[in-house]
Write the structure tokens for this entry.
Amino acid sequence: MATAAPKLDPRSSISASTASPLIAGRLALDFANTASSAHSLNWSQFIGFLADARVVTQERATRLSALLTSEPEAVEAVLAKILRLRGTLLGIFSAFVRRKPFPKTWAEPINEILQITEGHDELVLQGELWRLQYVAREEGLEWLLAAIARSAAELLIEGPEAPIRRCANAKCRLFFYDDSRTHRRRWCAMSLCGNRHKVAAFQRRQPKRRNS
């Protein structure tokens, strides 16, 4: 009997009013991290994520947001695939962090997106540097997931030694790709949990004030 892809626990829901920062270093990891701030991930939040990650332009994001009114059934259908893919990635990346295997059926949502979306690589100039960007063929709405699925597939083929980590802050636990020189990065970002840890450690070392 096939093992079902992992599902999100509703109890892990956190207020969706605060978006997760894009600190992971890989698109698929940043997408998985949206679960920390938006358990249900509505259409506006998903399109906002794509715009923040520069998968779509702000102009395109505005047009896509309007589909919630003009094509609600199509939006609802793709949202189900969006949540299924994210739930699967959460399970897969958690297994990577624990250095544990996962059922091959968990790769099915990724393959489904890869199979129904086609595209090409394209050179894009960012600042003074060129980078290679995957551009999906725009048919239906599944193409919006193409870059995420491709990013996830690239992580999977790195194998069990892929440097996927979770923030050492137990109240954070965001995923990130550890491409540091020593591969001993602990925090999602020094400007976030890293600095908080340093401040807390400093305060613990300070002698208690004497009662006046």
In short: The longest strand covers residues 119-126.
